[in-house]
Amino acid sequence: MIVKDLSRAECLELVAASHTARLACSLDGQPYVVPITVAFDDSFLYSFSMPGQKVDWMRANPKVCVLIEDHRQRSEWRSVVVYGTFEELPDKIGFKRERDRAWEMLQQRANWWEPGGLKPVPGPMVSASTHLFYRIAIDRMTGRQAVDDQRG
């Protein structure tokens, strides 16, 4: 197996093609990682969530990172780590264009509301909860790729 760095163009290609990712946030020195649905546009990753721990933590500490992976075979994979800043897109005046863009990008994905819209709580509480859109402003990204060195 040979591991190499991905160029920025290769990182952007993987990010643009991805639908799911792992979001890492932290609070008081404790990391937290969860799966999310993502949509990429320009310099943002858009996502959706119900209120909960990740949203609370990102509001308190907006610095996050997102892992995007593509596993082709056991010995061939690509991964990109996106470092960025959480930006909530509230349902308020001044955020309509950004919320509409998040909706437009995400609704192109099948089951885009999963896993952010699913919570392990009784139905009435979920139906009463307010969903929210957010984006990650991309500060930088790094990527790596492994290829099978036995390929001809």
Q: CATH superfamily assignment?
A: Electron Transport, Fmn-binding Protein, Chain A
- The geometry reads as globular
Number of strands: 8
SSE topology string: EHEEEEHEEHHE
Proportion of helical residues: 10-25%
Uncertain spans, ≥5 residues at pLDDT below 50?
none
Strand content: over 45%
CATH architecture: Roll
Total number of helical segments? 4
What is the third-level CATH name, the topology? Pnp Oxidase, Chain A
Average pLDDT confidence is 86
Question: Largest sheet, if any?
Answer: 8 strands, antiparallel
Rg is 17 Å
Distance between the termini: 13 Å
In total, how many domains does the architecture comprise? Answer: 1
Would you mind describing this structure in some detail?
The mean pLDDT is 86. The two termini are 13 Å apart. The chain has one domain (2-147): Pnp Oxidase, Chain A (Roll), CATH 2.30.110.10. The relative contact order is 0.27. The longest helix has 11 residues, at 96-106. It is built from 4 helices and 8 strands, in the order βαββββαββααβ. The protein has helices at residues 8-17, 53-60, 96-106, 123-128, and strands at 2-5, 20-27, 30-37, 39-41, 44-49, 63-73, 76-89, 132-147. Strands 1, 2, 3, 4, 5, 6, 7 and 8 form an 8-stranded antiparallel β-sheet that branches. By secondary structure, the chain is of the alpha+beta class.
